[in-house]
Amino acid sequence: MSSQTNFEMRLLQAILLWGNFVIMCCGIALMAMCIFFVYDRDHLHVLVYYTGSDSIWRAAWIGIFTGFALFCVAAYAMYAIMKEKKMPILVYIILMMIIFAFEMASAITAATHEDWFGPEIFLTEMLQKYDKQVLPSNTNEMNQIQEITNSWNQLMTQKSCCGVNGPQDWVTYNSSFRQLYSDASYPWPRQCCQQDAMGGVVQLQGCQIGVNPYLSTTGCYAYIAGPIMTQGLAVSWFGFAILCWVFLVLLGMMFYYTQVD
Questions:
Q1: DSSP for 85-107?
Q2: 108 and 135 share one domain
Q3: Distance between CA atoms of 213 and 167, rounded to whole angstroms?
Q4: 145 FRET partner, CA 20 to 30 A, in 18, 115, 243, 259?
Q5: Residue 181 contacts by C-beta under 8 Å, 6 or more apart in sequence?
Q6: How many CB atoms sit inside 10 A of residue 199's CB?
Q7: Cα–Cα distance between 156 and 136 in angstroms, integer?
Q8: Taking the CB of residue 200, how many other CB atoms lie within 10 A of it?
Q9: Does any domain span residue 170?
Q10: Which pTM was predicted?
Q11: pLDDT digit string (tens) for 192-216?
Q12: pLDDT digits over 31-42, tens only?
């Protein structure tokens, strides 16, 4: 091998080593981002899960797996590059192509989830399942109703919001809540009322007749869809950016494969 060819090979190795080091860093970042998403600090998973449209969480779990896999395989690539043997490089190429396919699925799912989270899907869930009375023998449904009711109560209390679009949801539509309470006594849940530091209602009568500020007039939809869409799009577009870089490094590794013995 001439000195010129040897220099070009070493330069190619250096570029590929650097490229895979970047993939390692991206894998750690992707894993951290997806862990932050599935941690669910806004406690929205229950509300999304029972709508049957929780694929965004599955995409995030795939992102955790692919992030860890990218880190491990890119680290292995450094060994394969320095070994200068076809078999380790071929193993790297096959593994990275499998990871590429998984991350592509994750990124596409996360990018298209926005179409699944219209206000109607959460409105239907709230009206049908919030505070619904079921037979004690139906344990699974009881647990589901309890989780949904607690999640809505927590959301409305913490964000000072009411319903999906506003308190009018409880009055305009028929609901399980309306079957328990009359419009005159409880037009909407007490969690829609302004509360003091101890969790008590500040002015119950003012809330019942809809006097501002004793009643939260803002809907909760923005507090549900906003964080999910923002974090989901971050996971998807960061995933697409990583895939673009991985594609370039893969091409370089394929060329390197043809140059070694």
A1: -HHHHHHHHHHHHHHHHHHHHHH
A2: no
A3: 13
A4: 115
A5: none
A6: 8
A7: 27
A8: 10
A9: yes
A10: 0.81
A11: 888 887 777 788 788 888 778 888 8
A12: 999 999 888 877
